[in-house]
């Protein structure tokens, strides 16, 4: 397939390794990757904060960048951004766009996927030859769980990883407390939710907490770093891209480096 890769804002600026891992993984599976160079933000943060008219240029840009008929699917390492494209873009286009925008959005929505659902639902694969000999726990992010309803798909992929020690995360479906601007506007509530999530993560004894959204991993990882938990956060794509011949090497935490 010819696949359009959407990096997302956070991936582009803070977590490029997750984007690269997505590209490596899809190329390893035999697909052609296209990276439209003028891609920008999907507009999710505007809509979530109540500004629905402002992201019209972003929604139009996304439709134009990925509307090329030769691009058979659009894939991104983010449940929240995929959810925005599939659900919010239509709302924005209907309320504030023209007929051309509505048509363009409908075309792109139909072929847009979060990474795990693309692998399982479209390609029909769960064992992709990954190797990751570490204890891992999985946090299902809110948008992937509730908006996209990816369900067990990320777990099915993780269970097929060679030598992984996958442990269940207690109260896994509870929000980590990030929610974009929610963490800023409701800092105390967000911190309390994060504390609960960190307690459950550290209780598993996992070396790695993984998820399909870098935003949630940034929030959880920041908290774990502050308490020197020794547990790292790593995007699902990076685990799936790791193989025996090219394994992902976990970096030492600051606490381990002093021992």
UniProtKB/TrEMBL annotation:
It comes from the Bacteria. Pfam families: CCG. Residues 4-85, 136-220 form the Cysteine-rich domain. InterPro entries: Cys_rich_dom. PANTHER family: LACTATE UTILIZATION PROTEIN A, UNCHARACTERIZED PROTEIN YKGE. This is (Fe-S)-binding protein. It comes from Streptomyces ochraceiscleroticus.
């Amino acid at each position: 397939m010819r696949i359009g890769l959407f990096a997302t804002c956070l991936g582009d600026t803070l977590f490029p390794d997750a984007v690269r891992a997505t590209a490596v993984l899809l190329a390893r599976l035999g697909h052609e990757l296209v990276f439209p160079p003028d891609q920008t933000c999907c507009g999710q943060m505007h809509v979530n904060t109540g500004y629905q008219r402002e992201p019209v240029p972003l929604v139009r840009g996304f439709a134009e960048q990925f509307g090329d008929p030769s691009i058979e699917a659009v894939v991104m390492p983010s449940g929240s951004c995929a959810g925005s494209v599939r659900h919010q873009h239509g709302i924005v286009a209907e309320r504030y766009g023209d007929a051309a925008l509505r048509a363009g959005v409908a075309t792109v929505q139909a072929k847009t996927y979060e990474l795990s659902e693309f692998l399982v639902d479209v390609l029909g694969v769960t064992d992709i030859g990954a190797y990751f000999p570490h204890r891992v726990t999985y946090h299902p992010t809110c948008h992937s769980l509730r908006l996209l309803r990816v369900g067990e798909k990320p777990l099915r992929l993780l269970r097929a990883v060679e030598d992984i020690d996958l442990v269940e995360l207690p109260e896994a479906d509870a929000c980590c407390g990030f929610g974009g601007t929610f963490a800023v506007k409701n800092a105390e509530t967000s911190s309390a939710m994060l504390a609960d999530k960190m307690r459950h993560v550290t209780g598993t004894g996992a070396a790695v907490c993984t998820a399909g959204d870098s935003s949630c991993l940034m929030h959880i990882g920041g908290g774990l770093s502050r308490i020197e938990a020794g547990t790292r956060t790593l995007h699902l794509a990076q685990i799936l891209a790791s193989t025996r011949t090219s394994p992902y090497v976990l970096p030492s935490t600051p606490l381990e480096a002093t021992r």
